[in-house]
Amino acid sequence: MRNQNIKTKVVLFLLIVCFTISTVMGWIGYQNGKTAIKNLGFNQLTSIRATKSSQLQSYLDLVGAQIITLGENPTTIEAMKGFSQAFSELKNEPNQTELTSTLVASDSSLHAYYENEFLPSLESGSHKSQVLTQFLPNSFTAAYLQHHYISENQFPTGRKNALRQANDGSQYSKVHNAFHNTLNSYLEKFDFYDIFLVDHNTGDIVYSVFKEADFATNLRNGPYRRSNIASAYEEANVLALADAPIFVEFDYYAPSYGAPAAFIAKPIFDNGERIGVLIFQMPITRINQIMTGNQHWVKDGLGETGETYLVGPDFTMRSVSRFLVEDREGYFAALEKLDYPSKTISQLDEFDTSILLQRVQTKASFGALSGKSSTGIIEDYRGISVLSSYGPIQFGDHQWALISEIDEAEAFAPIDALARTLIISSLLIGALVVGLAAYFSGQFTKPIISLANAARKVGEGASNISLEVKSTDEIGSLTSSFNDMVENLDSQRRTIEIKNLENTRLLLNILPEPIAERLKSGEAQIADTFSSVSVIFTDLVGFTKWSKGRPPMEVLSMLDDLFGSFDAVASKLGVEKIKTIGDAYMAVCGLPVPNENHASVMAELSF
How far apart are CA 252 and CA 126, in angstroms? Predict the structure, then answer.
């Protein structure tokens, strides 16, 4: 910067100061803003998680209260006794083996139902081949009731519960006619998937509202003895009257074509005597509605990428993923990048749910399933950086993880926009500063440049320079001082010239002009050799006597006229006057300027 002018230096200085201040203040503002937004995001996610947890817990508590209420209802108790007795009567039908073979024969409507409806749907849902005989009813009672209430039911699959009674004239159909509407209405009003009545002694499902392939089967030795509904029955069947209901975890449930299902169960007592078990098949849709806000994530405050979901102890989801619902292609593409098994992705697509399929092995799921509640910026199950708030929630005796998350990119989008604005603003301010600095530095340096130019001219010998004083600041004071300095220099110069002229005159009175000039030019020792010169010395005879008694001015006037005449003639002839002392006059020719004719010149002067 040494070779740069003041204007450039001022512009660069102000630009550096502006850039430094903008950078420091922008960085501080960005960091503070990012921290504030992060804390706000965490607080919002935690609030949403707490709300969802409260809603889900309230729902589970409500379901628990509903199954207790229904189990204690006299109508349910009568239905349990009626269905158990009617079911038992069917079991006592003679020739059961022959009748069962007929009902499940390859040409029967029941066999056609399993072969053409149930098995294809199950294989499509489970993505694996199934063996038909594994699911066919293995008892006469099951085959009989499924024949009349499923395969011969005129209502399509999914609406089999619309049948109030079969036209077989059996005691079972009479009991079904008496209680089915009440139980079906309860299911529809409270949005359960299915309701079961199970005999406490035998394990027979003596009644179900929805009429799927589990209807009338036995939970101890039937096709679904290893399913989670059988677990629900076994665990509830040993509960005391005052015990809380049993919640059984989600698992793939074959009668529902392999879809995930969870169950809640409670024993039924009649005057303190155990008579059966009441089981609800939990509605997945209701839990999903709570977790997704009925798929209104934006209204829940989760923006474009936020979601709240459940994770079970096996680290798989217990509610649907938002991205499966809203962005299937992007969701599957993200899983493919994580090297998810293609089979699992196909199941996610086929089942149209992430429950029991989407693995969530993240810091949030590990923390929540270990009983911790916290927040953090982590990678979610898609490998995307998210703001996460997580904590545990109880599902019966099981502990789930409830997680609320939003993509970090969306959460920090406002502060990123602020950063871009700050950068653009800094550039605009920098450009403005450069412009203003250039203008004002030009105004600032203009008088300095004028001073510099004037000083240069003074240095070159100019003496008639005077600058206009345009301000009262330091520059104005400097300009005024410069003008005073120039004026003083001019005055001193004139004084020196006068003194030099006086000195020259005085010197010429003492020395010849050539010698005086040589002395003025700096010669310290003046000594020349001349071979010959002529000297004249005059003295006025009788001057002393004559001058006595005469006025001094008369004497001086006479000498001045006389010696003035001598000087004029001497100057004309090139004779150098040496000095006059009183009435004596001394001159020389050939000194200090050599003259070969010095003698004749001096002779001429004498005459």
Answer: 9
Q: How far apart are CA 547 and CA 404, in angstroms?
A: 137
In the three-class reduction of DSSP (H, G, I as helix; E, B as strand; rest coil), residue 134 is classed as helix
The amino acid present at 512, given as its one-letter code, is P
Contacts 24+ apart (CB under 8 A), 31-40: 33/414, 33/415, 33/418, 34/412, 34/415, 37/411, 37/412, 37/414, 37/415, 38/377, 38/387, 38/411, 38/412
How many CB atoms within 10 Å of residue 452?
11
Q: Where are the beta strands (DSSP E) in 505-575?
A: 534-539
pLDDT at 546: 78
Question: What phi and psi values does residue 374 have, to the nearest 5 degrees?
Answer: -165, -175
Asked which of 62-66, 239-243, 291-295, 486-490 is least confident by mean pLDDT, the reply is 486-490
Residue type, 596: E
Q: Of all residues in the chain, what percent are helix, strand and coil, respectively (each to 5)?
A: 55, 15, 30
CA distance 196 to 309: 28
**Side chain identity at residue 559, one-letter code:** L
pLDDT at 399: 92
pLDDT beyond 90 at 309: yes
Distance CA 400, CA 317 (A): 9
DSSP 3-state of 395:
strand
Neighbour-count burial for 182-195, b at 16+ CB within 10 Å, e otherwise: ebbebbeebebbbb
- Higher per-residue confidence, 251 vs 548: 251
Q: In what order do the strands lie in the sheet with 246-253?
A: 205-208, 194-199, 273-281, 259-270, 246-253
Give 280: exposed, middle or buried? Use CB within 10 Å, 0-12, 13-18, 19+. Answer: buried
Q: Which of 367-371, 414-418, 444-448, 465-469 has the highest mean pLDDT?
A: 367-371
CA distance 430 to 438: 12
Tell me the residue length of the chain: 607
Q: Which of 242-251, 266-275, 511-520 has the lowest mean pLDDT?
A: 511-520
- 308: closest CA among 333, 285, 290? 290
- Identify the residue with better confidence: 459 or 409: 409
Confidence of residue 510 (pLDDT cuts 50, 70, 90): low
User: Measured between alpha carbons, how far is 11 from 465 in angstroms, rounded to an integer?
Assistant: 31
Contacts 24+ apart (CB under 8 A), 473-481: 475/444, 475/447, 475/448, 476/447, 478/451, 479/447, 479/450, 479/451
The structure's pTM equals: 0.68
Q: What is the DSSP string of 312-381?
A: -TTSBBSS--HHHHH-HHHHHHHHHHTT--HHHHHHHHHHT--BTTSB--SHHHHHHHTT--EEEEEE-T
What's the pLDDT band for 182 if we cut at 50, 70, 90? Answer: very high
Q: Is the pLDDT of residue 187 over 80?
A: yes
> Phi/psi of residue 109, each to 5°?
-65, -30
